[in-house]
Amino acid sequence: MSAIEHLPGIDNGLLRFLTCGSVDDGKSTLIGRLLYDTKTILADTLHAIARTSERRGLEAVDLSLITDGLSAEREQGITIDVAYRYFTTGRRKYIIADAPGHEQYTRNMVTAASTANLAIILVDARKGLLTQTRRHSYLAHLVGIPHIVVAINKMDLVDYDQAVFDRIRDEYLEFAATLGIGDVGFIPLSALNGDMIVDRGERLDWYSGPTLLDILEDAPTAHSERDERFRFPVQYVCRPQKSGDPKLHDYRGFMGRVESGEIAVGDEVLVLPSEQRTRIKAIEIYGSSLPRAIAEQSVTLLLDDEVDVSRGDMIVRAQELALVTRRIEAMLCWLGDTALDPQRKYLIRQTTRETKAMIEAIDYRLDINTLQQLPADRLGMNDIARVTFKLAQPLCVDAYGENRSTGAFIVIDESSNCTVGAGMIL
Amino acid sequence: MSTLALQQHATLSHLDWLESESIHILREVAGQCANPALLFSGGKDSLVLLRLAEKAFRPGRFPFPLLNIDTGHNYPEVIDFRDFRACQLNERLIVRSVEDSMRRGTVVLKTPGESRNKHQSVTLLEAIEEFGFDCCIGGARRDEEKARAKERIFSFRDEFGQWDPKNQRPELWDLFNARVHKGENIRAFPISNWTELDVWQYIEREELQLPSIYFAHRREVIRRSGLLQPVTELTPARAGDVVEEITVRFRTVGDITCTAPVESNADTVARIIEETATTTITERGETRLDDQTSEASMEQRKKEGYF
After folding, report:
1. Which residues in chain B touch residue A42, judged by CB atoms under 8 angstroms apart?
2. Do B9 and A68 touch (CB under 8 A)?
3. Distance spanning both ends of chain A, measured CA to CA
4. Among candidates A124, A149, A156, A145, which has minimal Cα distance to A213?
């Protein structure tokens, strides 16, 4: 991590983004190039991959080797799970979720996409849009990634021809419109030669837009454009009355993270699902009092009245209720090895709340290659379906399209304790 | 991008964001696990964890004890600091030692002076069983090593403490799943998303105290295959070795036999940050005598129950 010019002043926040593409789109090379050109790759790592490149008989250092992870994968020569990479430019810190592009790994892409705020979708300039380009785009859209960048890679292999770029862009825009994808940008690049990643290169003069890194530096971070309604799922209740400090005898702090919106001392709030009404007495973190708390801040709230609040409850503003419901309709991605069995009970975890749940209906299964809706009575791994769940306990929810925190849930199989499904509330 | 205009709400700086995420993870451990413990070595990453735990749980006590697996091969400055900090925080510290496992016969050394780093796994698993811990919180980071880049924040270990990379739970959004059956275990890593530089920047911002060996000091060393081997009772000079006294600091602290210092004059956190930001070698590549053996060595140790 060298060449940081403005330390310590990384004040433009943190951006999480996702790269998706198939094996041959040059995704690993692109990530390697980003890390290399931002001087994140240190000498010993570079030395190790240079050695490997040489052993494999390659002429130049293969930057894609940087992102190779576990030895099991190295043997197979493919990436089989989500890996996280880090780099900083001095202005901003980045977390890359590197998702593999294979057909059978929808679940990995959904996992990687769940925390991303921007997706780079790689297209091989020679091949144009493929079925998997469409699939990746649909999944990025489904998981609510607000910004999509279509990176048309390998421009060096089509002679840096603008006509190729234009044709792919037009075709993609037509497809994006059918999905309702609004914010999409296009960039021509050569990850291999480093054109238009960090440096502009010399062969893409006809392109006047930003480089890939410029796009990343300027993209809004998650919390800057989220739902403004205040949502505070209670994680933990702090009652230090046994500490011996008499001042703390009546202390009851409700600990959690502001998932969206903001709150100030004195604001009127409701505790869901009980709908008890009170006001914010204080906002604290580690001994200091704050006048207000903003989205993504972990704080402790103290309330005016002695209301009964426990883990799993949600504190909202009095005028901005979330829906309290025992039935949810959702898009569900099945992640488990074992098929979803509509006869069984599952556990649903949403925010800090858990409840038993049963499938009421599988409305349809979606073929993510054709986007056709098909009837289904079971769901296997990587299937995506619209379902209705009946819940044993109420949940406090928002539509996922409006709030990625309160609209998301996971499904847990109680017999194995595995996470077997990911749901987005409609 | 055209959407830049949308950026209107107040946002957190990258350190504030990381801190908040880590607090959220610690509170999830407290909310979901019946009997967790926090692994505390006295090293910089675990000292950051303690500050995060203070932010997560004060004015209450920590909802977990601190647990240290002592190899018996640690630098005394670090052990002293461990005890000092636990006492200062008024939190319970449990120490279990590899030497006890050796006496029980559960750890068998091939050679008396060998690194006890990998043997920590045995003692850790014994402590987990003794106290019935269902979750151990650790200070590992994904940027440390290749095998860690795919590690979950809540990492599942089976009854044998084994990490199976192919049998990890998908982790979506911030919805962590810490459920285990009896005997199974979760390792939770609240600073997964931090880099070495983030750690140092946080230490500076929070004005955290550290063991003295993190700062530049004079020390006798031998240059061995590109690394500096400190001269200690456990790692004495061999015939023919050239012993030099130079100014060094430690980037990581672990078992004496496998942790190497780096040549440095950085005697303040600010100077360390400057060096970290301009270094050309990874933290483990420069300082861990054990990780160089094979590219896949961390993966192998983790499968055996290593942290």
Report:
1. 279-282, 285
2. no
3. 42
4. A149
**Cβ neighbours of A85 in B, within 8 Å:** 149
Q: Cβ contact (<8 Å) for A226 and B23?
A: no
Choose among A213, A425, A226, A329: nearest CA to B6. Answer: A226
- pTM score of the predicted model: 0.90
A43 has a pLDDT exceeding 60: no
Computed over every residue of chain A, the mean pLDDT equals 87
Distance from CA of B279 to the nearest CA of A (A): 6
CB-neighbour burial class of residue A4 (10 A; exposed 0-12, middle 13-18, buried 19+) = buried
Name the residue of chain A whose CA is nearest to B279's CA. A2
For B29-44, the pLDDT digits (tens) are 999 999 999 999 999 9
N-term to C-term CA, chain B = 42
- Partner residue facing A220 (CB), from B6, B12, B195: B6
Residue A330 binned pLDDT confidence (cut-offs 50, 70, 90)? very high
Q: Which pLDDT band holds residue A223 (cuts at 50, 70, 90)?
A: low
What secondary structure letter does DSSP report for A311? Answer: T
With a pLDDT cut of 90, the percent of chain B lying above it is 54
Are A280 and A302 in contact by the 8 Å Cβ rule? The answer is yes
- What dihedral angle (degrees, nearest 10) is formed by the CA atoms of A54, A56, A58, A64? -100
Q: Would you state the pLDDT for residue A315?
A: 98
- Please return the burial class of B9, using the count of CB atoms within 10 Å of its CB with bins 0-12, 13-18 and 19+: middle
Residue A122: name the closest of A221, A212, A36 by CA. A212
Provide the shortest C-alpha distance from residue A204 to chain B (in Å): 19
A–B: how many Cβ contacts below 8 A? 227
Bridge partners for A187 per DSSP: A151
Checking if the pLDDT of B291 tops 50, the result is no
> A228 and B9 in contact by Cβ < 8 A?
yes
Residues of A in contact with B31 (CB under 8 A): 235-236, 311, 352
Give me the pLDDT at residue A250, please.
87
Q: Quick check: B148 and B141 in contact, CB under 8 A? A: yes
Are A197 and A270 in contact by the 8 Å Cβ rule? The answer is no
Q: Does B33 touch chain A (CB under 8 A)?
A: no
Q: Alpha-carbon distance A1 to B168, whole Å? A: 29
Those residues with Cβ within 8 angstroms of residue B278's Cβ, 6 or more apart along the chain or in another chain: A2, A3, A4
* Chain B contact set for A10 (CB, 8 A): 13-15
Beta bridge partners of B136: B37, B187
Q: At what angle are helices B196-206 and B14-32 packed, to 10 degrees?
A: 90
Q: Give residue-wise pLDDT tens across range B240-289.
A: 889 999 999 998 887 788 788 999 999 999 998 888 777 666 665 655 55
Report the C-alpha gap between B11 and B17 in whole angstroms.
Answer: 9
The nearest CA of chain B is from the CA of A353 a distance in Å of 10
pLDDT confidence tier of residue A90, bands split at 50, 70 and 90: confident
For the cut 50, the answer to whether the pLDDT of residue A117 exceeds it is yes
Q: What DSSP state is assigned to residue A246?
A: G
